[in-house]
Amino acid sequence: MSKPKVKDDEQILRQVRYEVTELRKLGEDWGMSSGQINQCINEAFCQKLTSGSKITEKIAKNIQEGTKWIKIRLVFRIWLVFIITVFGLVTLTNHTEYFGKAVDKMLQPYGYPIFRVVRLLSLPLHHYNISSYHNRECVVPNPYFYDQEDECLCQGITKVRVTKLRKEKELGKEFFEIPILFKGLQKELVPFEKVIKLVQDEYEILKDPSLLVDSSVDWIKNIGDLNDIELKSKMNKEENFHVEWNSRRMSTSQTLRTLFPRPVIYPKKIEVVITRSLYVAGPHADGILLTENQAADLFYIQGWGTRTVVFTPRKTCEDVCDSFSVKTEPGDVLMFANSWDVKLLPNEEGISVSFMGGVA
């Protein structure tokens, strides 16, 4: 039963091939190019057949399905070539010094636009708090990962440069290669009452229970808990009151920006990272480490109160770098590269409100 059916199919295929050959000859006689002829044949095969022959319809359907799978295989091959090419370039960049420098130099003018697009595309992911995964072990080890040794960029720096701008202006990036303290750069001071008012005004955004804070008291678990008119009197009764909030969402970081705007001395082409930190400390509160899990170059703003900031070399640079400190007052802005372990000493009298951000 199957042999006559196969013979019929083969006969119809031969007939189709013959007719296609005749069509090609006819197209050439009319002066059509090979591309135009192929287009006409493809359009003919895409037309719905009106013939009553089930075998002919089956053959046409098989031809159309074959064309579809050819296109799918072509897309897959292009995608595979792209992945292999990118992987090869990344490997060469990481393991070949000359090629890596050439690629860095070529991409340098486009670094800011590329990472800006990446950050904007990642905005939907900011709804999820993944901070608990930052320091966890990898499930699968990366064979190409290696710990980079510190280059000891702190070498030769023995103190923080203290200055005061006569007028607001942008400064070049090379100006921030050493720690520098700008006296009174932030004009609007930020007492603790302003923080409470901000939480009250933006409570719809900040009441989210997932916006957790690192607090010394159990009655403040998230940033929305600062919406309390009696909070100041409560914190004065605590011996070691401090609250640290690390904002990693675009909406909450923009809210913090109303109190601590971007320092005017940064050029506009420098991007401020989304992660921003708010620190509130009561009288005699313990010190904290500012540079833990930080990757960008940083700026610290003293909104209210005074704090002493200590710069300590990391272990790999202890032999070639020095330790030093500087005292910040309300309105001061301290900028420094992430090349030291930077710590706030215990707070003195009064309430301290400060902020830290970073630049890419």
Secondary-structure map with pairings?
Layout: H1 2-29, H2 34-46, H3 54-95, H4 97-107, H5 111-121, E1 161-163, E2 180-182, H6 192-201, H7 203-206, E3 214-215, H8 231-236, E4 242-247, H9 250-257, E5 276-281, E6 288-289, E7 297-304, E8 307-312, E9 324-328, E10 333-336, E11 341-344, E12 352-359
Parallel strand pairs: 1-2
Antiparallel strand pairs: 2-10, 3-4, 4-5, 5-12, 6-11, 7-10, 7-12, 8-9, 8-11
Transmembrane segments: 74-92
Keywords: Cytoplasm, Golgi apparatus, Membrane, Signal-anchor, Transmembrane, Transmembrane helix
Subcellular location: Cytoplasm; Golgi apparatus membrane
Concise synopsis of the structure shown:
The chain contains nine helices and twelve strands. It is α+β, with helices and mostly antiparallel strands.
What is the total tally of β strands?
12
Could you name the CATH topology of one domain?
A: Jelly Rolls
Distance between the termini: 74 Å
Which bin fits the share of residues in helices? 25-40%
- Which sequence of strands runs across the widest sheet? 1-2-10-7-12-5-4-3
Q: Which architecture of one domain would the CATH scheme give at its second level? A: Sandwich
The SSE string, one letter per element, is HHHHHEEHHEHEHEEEEEEEE
Largest sheet: 8 strands, mixed
Oligomeric state of the chains present here: single chain
Morphology: elongated
CATH homolog superfamily of one domain: Jelly Rolls
Low-confidence stretches: none
Q: What is the CA-based Rg, rounded?
A: 33 Å
CATH C-level name of one domain: Mainly Beta
Structural class: alpha+beta
Mean pLDDT: 81
Count of runs of 4 or more consecutive helical residues:
9
Strand proportion: 15-25%
